[in-house]
Amino acid sequence: MDLDILLLHHFGTTELDDLDEAAIADGLERVRIAFGLESDSGRRFALWIVLHALGEAPDPAKAFKTAGERKAAEAYARAAARMDDG
Fold first, then answer.
1. How many separate domains does the chain show?
2. Alpha carbon distance 27, 77 (integer Å)
């Protein structure tokens, strides 16, 4: 999934810095719903990444059914944390 398309679809813009708190909260709710309903693992992972980037991602152990998906989410979270630290 393309990040810009995800942001446009759920938030109405690719520039989240331009949104107020209410618009971000509304967009996050739409992403959460989409995440809960999505059955395609790749799309589901992309939605989880958006949630993670905004500090709202569920724990990988609860969010993903397979060990491979959980490991990928945990690896992504570690890499993102290193980017934030560096």
1. 1
2. 21
